[in-house]
Design goal:
about 700 residues; alpha+beta; Rossmann fold; Endonuclease - Pi-scei, Chain A, domain 1; Endonuclease I-creI; nine-stranded mixed β-sheet; 14 helices; about 30% strand
């Protein structure tokens, strides 16, 4: 049984309640310097009933729980409504970078006491820029330089330095904090860079062919080489520009389970006309289309049997050396018979073993391995998906791949196939695109399955190859929920033809909401797409499980080893040598080591896909960022702590990995988020976890 504790109060006060050496690992992300107010301040004077919450430009109240600095986002020192004075500031609202660094050193001095001697700290920090505020003309931290207020006779931009920082200076907060902690006795073991990835997929026609492509990837291309499907024809892309995030973005959740994030002014064609996202209500139905089959399909020797086999492999397959392994139930004799026919057809062989109720099939053959290399990307159940080349094949071919997948992970129930699969976002995208190509109806919702005392994230849903016109048959594109968007980046897209529509990769149509795209406002530097995680330790020797966070061996390394293993020997008057100058025995061992290894040592640049979180928190840790930190820094049963608990991602991942957790959070609203995320109220009597929430005053 693992224990999960939430401490509600000031971080230092809460840390002082914990015994020495009681925590094995800390994974945390402090509030960034000068970027946001989390509404935890106390105020003196003014109106006691005032919420000290600035108004939006349209006169409405800002209801954001975490407000951005500047541009009317928050009152940093004095309330502009009632004159009340802020008497205690949260971490991140210090007047200078030096004060911010000093405060974090004080916090981590207490963390050092609580941490075990062999413990680790994984500290995530982002940077900010020095800027000139409109209100005072002095430097503050913010995302970008802003002109100061211009008075008569003044220059258009105020050039004032503050502690050596000039407007537009990158402050260097992560390294300032890291070096200060190092000087305070911490071992600075590594800097890890994590990058933002992901984005909305559209159905695009580029020089690589017709396929689902992220908007972010399209933005890197010459617009003249890109066309988007508008439901009837391919329309020319005019341009793409990135929009600044304002905090009021919207996520639409459809009956199909699809989640679409957009700005409030973005327009969608619906059954009641072209509507801005902010005016869409639950019950509205977005218009959709069937995606086109390529005008010239890929002509290849492999057929629908190969496609079926590749689809089955995505559902039930794995690799062990040259052997393709397919696992299923012993009663699935028709599957075994079909696999034998396919193996023989492509010059391979197949063997079958029965263990209790399990049928284990092993398939051998160079051509079959090559087919999987052609049609399948990824290696595990969490990342296997269609290779991009699949979209160049015919609908009949794609239908066969879907059939193969359903024969593994699907369950036939009348006219529908029920689906249950692990949380694989890559394959979710492919299923939505495949069904949009084939005209199938797909529902795929996020879910979870209890296993060994943990909740494993999954997808559950169904595929219908045809639907009835019964009055009670609701469309999959109906909006069933509207919530705050969690995406970090938004883009405006311009297309050429009337009615200025283009299709997402799922077939949902959206409108060209900005017909004359403008370039991104930041044009004198690269767009920032990374943050830092610092690995800090209390001692020179510490616990680090490198094996738990190994990465898959690079495809090029495997192929090089495979090629070397198949190389022919030569006689040149001396000993026979293979590629790389190794003897046959040495090369064979090298290939086996590479092919059978569990992976390579994890690199220091991590590409992390950010996932949406439905609640109102602006600094949500990606699960995929937290998981390797916990795996490397702890063993099952150890205690993981997040001293800035936020939405509770660290606690949730720790629980799912069979670790105990401690979350410290100042804001009572966020404590409620953590409790909800851990489902504490529903699971108090299960005996699987032990929960505790304490208020520290």
């Amino acid at each position: 049984m693992t224990k999960h504790t939430i401490l509600n109060g000031d971080v230092i006060d809460c840390l002082k309640t914990l015994p020495d050496g009681s925590v094995q690992c800390v994974v945390t992300s402090p509030p960034y310097f000068g970027l946001r107010d989390y509404n935890t301040a106390s105020w003196e004077g003014g109106d006691p009933d005032c919420d000290h919450n600035p108004q939006r430009p349209d006169g409405g109240e800002r209801s954001d729980r975490a407000l951005p600095l500047g541009r009317g986002g928050m009152y940093k020192d004095v309330c502009g409504k009632c004159g009340a004075v802020r008497v205690d500031k949260q971490i991140g609202l210090e007047d200078t970078p030096e004060a911010y660094v000093t405060k974090l050193v004080e916090v981590f001095r207490e963390v050092r006491r609580v941490l075990r001697d062999d413990g680790t700290v994984w500290l995530n920090l982002g940077d900010s820029y020095a800027a000139t505020t409109k209100q005072t003309g002095r430097n503050d931290a913010n995302n970008e330089f802003r002109p100061g207020r211009v008075e008569a006779g003044e220059k258009t931009k105020t050039k004032i330095t503050l502690n050596g920082l000039k407007p537009k200076d990158l402050i260097g907060i992560p390294w300032r904090v890291a070096f200060a902690l190092q000087a305070n006795g911490w071992y600075l073991r590594q800097d890890i860079i994590w990058c933002l990835s992901g984005g909305t997929y559209v159905y695009a026609k580029t020089q690589k062919g017709e396929m689902p492509t992220t908007i972010k990837d399209i933005a890197r291309l010459d617009p003249s080489t890109v066309r988007l499907w508008n439901g009837e024809k391919w329309t020319q892309l005019l341009g793409i520009s990135k929009s600044k995030r304002n905090g009021d973005e919207i996520e639409l959740v459809l009956r199909s389970g699809e989640r679409i994030s957009c700005t409030p002014a973005h327009r969608f064609p619906t059954e009641r006309g072209l509507i801005e996202a902010k005016d869409i209500v639950v019950g509205d139905t977005l218009l959709s289309c069937q995606l086109p089959e390529p005008s010239t399909v890929k002509d290849c020797a492999i057929d629908e049997d190969a496609a079926w086999f590749a689809g089955l492999y995505i559902a039930e397959g794995s690799m062990s050396g040259d052997a393709i392994q397919i696992t299923g139930h012993k009663k699935e004799k028709k599957r075994w018979e079909k696999i034998q026919i396919i193996a023989e057809k492509y010059g391979g062989s197949a063997k079958c073993s029965i263990y209790n109720n399990t049928m284990a099939i092993r398939v051998y053959g160079k051509v079959l391995n090559a087919i999987l290399d052609e049609l399948v990307s990824g290696r595990t159940a969490k990342d296997k998906c269609f290779s991009p080349v699949v979209w160049r094949y015919s609908n009949q071919f794609i239908s066969a791949m879907v059939e193969g997948y359903l024969s593994g992970d699907g369950h036939k129930d009348g006219s529908r196939w029920r689906l249950g699969l692990c949380r694989n976002y890559n394959f979710e995208r492919d299923l939505r695109t495949a069904c949009a190509r084939l005209g199938y109806s797909l529902t795929l919702n996020m879910s979870g399955v209890p296993y060994n005392g943990k909740i494993n994230p999954t997808f559950r849903g169904e595929i219908r190859k045809s639907t009835s016109n019964h009055w009670n048959n609701k469309k999959r594109s109906e909006v069933v929920e509207i919530r705050k968007a969690r995406s970090r980046q938004f883009y405006d897209i311009g297309v050429e033809d009337e009615p200025h529509l283009f299709s997402l990769a799922s077939g949902i149509l959206t409108h060209n909401s900005k017909p004359n795209p403008m370039p991104e406002s930041v044009t004198d530097r690269c767009t920032k797409a990374h943050e830092y995680i610092f690995l800090l330790t209390k001692s020179a020797r510490y616990y680090y499980d490198a094996g738990a966070v190994k990465e898959p061996v690079a495809e090029t390394t495997v192929m090089r080893a495979k090629s070397s293993n198949n190389a022919t020997s030569r006689k040149d008057g001396g000993d026979a040598k293979w590629q790389g100058g190794l003897t046959p025995e040495q090369q064979n061992k090298y290939y086996k080591d590479i092919n059978g290894s569990s992976g390579r040592n994890r690199r220091s640049v991590w590409t992390i896909s950010t996932k949406p979180y439905e609640e109102a928190h602006f600094a949500t840790f990606p699960r995929d960022l937290v998981e390797p930190c916990i795996k490397a820094g702890t063993a099952p049963g150890d205690t993981v702590m997040d001293i800035f608990g936020g939405s509770g991602t660290v606690a949730e991942v720790a629980r799912d990995l069979d670790r105990s957790s401690i979350s410290i959070e100042l804001n009572p609203d966020y404590v409620k988020l953590i409790r909800k995320r851990l489902k504490m109220d529903q699971q108090l009597d299960t005996g699987i976890y032990e929960y505790e929430t304490r208020v520290i005053s």
